[in-house]
Specification:
This protein is of the alpha/beta class. Helices cover 47% and strands 11% of the residues. The chain binds zinc ion.
């Protein structure tokens, strides 16, 4: 009897030793706190935080008036980790009291039609990180939808080494799980949209036009197979230096409804005219864990600074694009 138990015990110990050692060392980043630890907190981080606290105090008397301004305002995120949910929820619910949430497609159409009669917000998210499901459920609480810009390379990606490399090289973040096709289907069924964000998050400005066209075609083909027609494209990294007019013209010539940057700003009700140039969306980035005051400051500042030029490609694109 004792011998039996001793053998079983030893066997279990040996088995668990192998199970434990066989378990990959890989651990995904699941909290914003871990994510921040990966980035590190430099003196610059604290200086920026303090500066934003002060800017918020100076700007806050304008919030009420600015938030009432008719406009199309795109807000975008990358992730909503577990420890960001509560704060993100607070921000979304607060913005819902002063803004009307519309889909990305409706927002684009309203800019084109010039039907911007009140303050509209449209949400989007880049990179297809799995914790975007948290964002989706928070947005659904207020009837808002989101356009998820994804990279086919990372969808369904389970190879941990590949994930780690992709996150480090392309996204500058610790390894995180990505959405799979069935989760994307669930998002679409809940009323969210899917947009293209290049195949494997390459920098568009570093690709030849030919290579970009191939990349775009490949991305569009894969997304179309799973999600139906794709209407929107967000180029990676998002500054004006990361894309150019020729690449974006190709996106429109391929039948897409919009191309977007990640440059801060929003779109005024004063009409967009196709004759004056092609549309390039501006978006304000939101980090779920940020103090709500900081997000409100950026939103208010974009309202204060909005001009008709915000509808179009930047001037730099026409000279060197
Ligand atoms: Zn991205």
């Amino acid at each position: 009897m004792f011998a039996d138990r001793a053998i079983t015990y030893t066997f279990v110990r040996i088995l668990s030793f192998f199970t434990v050692t066989a378990t990959p060392i890989m651990s995904y980043c699941t909290t914003f706190t871990e994510f921040q630890r990966y980035l590190g907190r430099s003196p610059r981080y604290y200086a920026r935080r303090l500066a934003l606290d002060i800017l918020h105090i100076l700007e806050s008397p304008k919030y009420r008036g600015n938030f009432k301004q008719p406009r199309i305002h795109f807000l975008y995120i990358h992730h909503i980790f577990e420890d960001e949910i509560a704060n993100f929820r607070k921000l979304v619910h607060e913005l819902a009291t002063s803004h009307t949430f519309i889909t990305h497609s409706e927002a684009v159409q309203r800019i084109k039609d010039g039907t911007v009669d009140k303050p509209y917000l449209a949400w989007s998210s880049d990179d297809g990180i799995q914790n975007n499901l948290n964002a989706a459920s928070v947005l659904e609480e207020v009837g808002a939808s989101c356009c998820f810009y994804v990279n086919p390379f990372s969808i369904n990606l389970t190879d941990e080494r590949a994930i780690k490399q992709f996150c480090a090289e392309k996204l500058d973040m610790p390894p995180v799980p990505f959405l799979n096709w069935s989760e994307i289907e669930v998002l679409q069924k809940a009323g969210h949209e899917i947009g293209a964000h290049t195949y494997a998050h390459d920098r568009v400005s570093q690709l030849s036009l030919e290579n970009f066209q191939e990349d775009f075609y490949k991305t569009d083909t894969i997304l179309k197979q799973h999600c139906g027609p794709i209407q929107h494209f967000a180029y990676t990294y998002g500054t004006f230096n990361d894309c150019d007019a020729k690449a974006m013209d190709f996106v429109y010539d391929s039948g897409y409804a919009s191309g977007t940057s990640a440059v801060r700003g929003c779109h005024p009700p004063t009409g967009y005219h196709a004759k004056e140039g092609r549309l390039l969306l501006r978006r304000d980035q939101i980090i779920g864990a940020w103090p709500i005051s900081h997000s409100k400051y950026f939103i208010s500042r974009s309202v204060r600074q909005m001009t008709r030029d915000n509808h179009y490609y930047p001037k730099t694109w026409t000279t060197d694009g």
